[in-house]
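Saturday, quiet lab. Running sequence design on the C-alpha cells for the scaffold JK sent over.
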C-alpha cells in the first residue's frame, strides 16, 4: 500500500497557485463580459450567440435589475417546490422499489 498524502498536498498547493495566478485575468475578462465590452473571445462567441438567439426567436434586449430579480426568485421558487414534491413523493414512484418518501419536516429541511 502506498501513501498518497504528500501527493494530495502537492496537488492542492499547485491548484492554489494556479488559481491565484488566474484571479486577475479571469476577473478582468468577466468584468468586460458583464459590462458588455468586447473581449478576445467576442469574434467567436458573438456570432454563435446571435445564431442561438435567432434560432430560439429571442429578441436581444437589456433587462432591468427588477426584472432579473423577479425571474431569479420565480425560477428558484419553482425549483424549490418541484424538489420538495420529489422528496415527498419518491416513495410512490414505480421505478424506485423499497424507498420511502421523506417526512414533511425532513423534506422541507433537506437542501
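Result came back. Writing it out in full:
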Amino acid at each position: 500500500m502506498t501513501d498518497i498524502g504528500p501527493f494530495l498536498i502537492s496537488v492542492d498547493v499547485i491548484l492554489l497557485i494556479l488559481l491565484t495566478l488566474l484571479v486577475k485575468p479571469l476577473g478582468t475578462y468577466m468584468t468586460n463580459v458583464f459590462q458588455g465590452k468586447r473581449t478576445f473571445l467576442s469574434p467567436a462567441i458573438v456570432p454563435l450567440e446571435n445564431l442561438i438567439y435567432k434560432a430560439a426567436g429571442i429578441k436581444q434586449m437589456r433587462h432591468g435589475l427588477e426584472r432579473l430579480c423577479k425571474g431569479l426568485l420565480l425560477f428558484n421558487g419553482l425549483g424549490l417546490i418541484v424538489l420538495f414534491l420529489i422528496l415527498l413523493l419518491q416513495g410512490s414512484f414505480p421505478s424506485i422499489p423499497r424507498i420511502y418518501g421523506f417526512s414533511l419536516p425532513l423534506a422541507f429541511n433537506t437542501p
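Notes for JK: The chain has a mean pLDDT of 84. Residues 1-61 form one domain. Ask whether to fix the surface positions before the next round.
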